[in-house]
Amino acid sequence: MKALIALTSIVGFLMVVLPGPLYQYAGVSLGTAFTSLRFGVYVGGAALILIILQVLINRKNVSWGSTFICAVLALVAVGMPVSMMSKASAVPPIHDITTDVTNPPEFVAIAPLREGAPNSIAYEGGDVTKQQLEAYPEIKTQLLPQPINEVYMAAEKAIAALGWERASEGALPNTLEATETTTWFGFKDDVVIRLTAKSDDTLVDIRSKSRVGKSDLGKNAERIEIFMAELRNQLGYQ
């Protein structure tokens, strides 16, 4: 029983943790990676059941240290995919979020980097717009009381502070483009920031779009909020 518990716990853990690095560095397909995640939940769940049975039936011979470690591994195997599924069910299945749904900022400098990506740089609108407005009503154009050149410099510093990779060749005037690479799977999501002068103030529009995947699990909306917070920080907001 102990050997079976250890085996299922370790296998379930590896089936959940390894798909990201294998997809990112070993060329494993996204479908295979997600299949591994799904079955990792089953294996981790089986390990938890075995642990519970062992504690109930053979409590006196339980090695609590190793059992605790196995339980942690099994909980990770179950918890991580379940958390992802929970996020997916709580947000709309879209991957293109913008503060301006009628005239979204354009990807220009990043366009060549997205060649061959499953998700086009084109903004679909229609049902995508409807779902965004319902799920993220707070995502909208921001008006900042600073001149455009000051906001532009602050935006450059914000991109650097967030560790995004800047793409500037061919970018439109008063527009900044960058890419964020996620840690686990190495997904590349692209951002374009458009600044528009309005008297002595500046309108800030942001668009964040994933290169792969139907649903972004809410990541693009979160990225926009994070950028705006960092931008305000760079401008000296308290």
Briefly say what this structure is.
The chain is of the alpha+beta class. The chain is built from seven helices and six strands.
Primary descriptors:
alpha+beta, 6 strands, 238 residues, six-stranded antiparallel sheet
Describe this structure in words.
By secondary structure, this protein is of the alpha+beta class. 50% of the residues lie in helices and 16% in strands. It contains seven helices and six strands; from the N terminus they run H-H-H-H-E-H-E-H-E-E-E-E-H. It has helices spanning 2-17, 19-25, 30-57, 64-90, 127-135, 148-162, 219-234; strands spanning 96-98, 142-144, 165-167, 175-181, 188-198, 201-210. Strands 1, 2, 3, 4, 5 and 6 form a six-stranded antiparallel β-sheet that branches. Strand 3 (165-167) and strand 4 form a beta hairpin. Helix 1 (2-17) packs antiparallel against helix 3 (30-57), helix 2 (19-25) runs antiparallel to helix 3 and helix 6 (148-162) packs across helix 7. The radius of gyration is 22 Å and the shape is elongated. The protein starts with a helix and ends with a helix. The mean pLDDT is 94.
Layout of helices and strands:
Blueprint (H helix, E strand, L loop, with lengths): L1 H16 L1 H7 L4 H28 L6 H27 L5 E3 L28 H9 L6 E3 L3 H15 L2 E3 L7 E7 L6 E11 L2 E10 L8 H16 L4
Antiparallel strand pairs: 1-6, 2-6, 3-4, 4-5, 5-6
Helix pairs in contact: 1-3, 1-4, 2-3, 3-4, 6-7
Helix coverage percent: 40-55%
- Portion in strands: 15-25%
What is the multimeric organization of the chains shown? single chain
Give the structural class: alpha+beta
- Outline: elongated
Helices, by number, come to 7
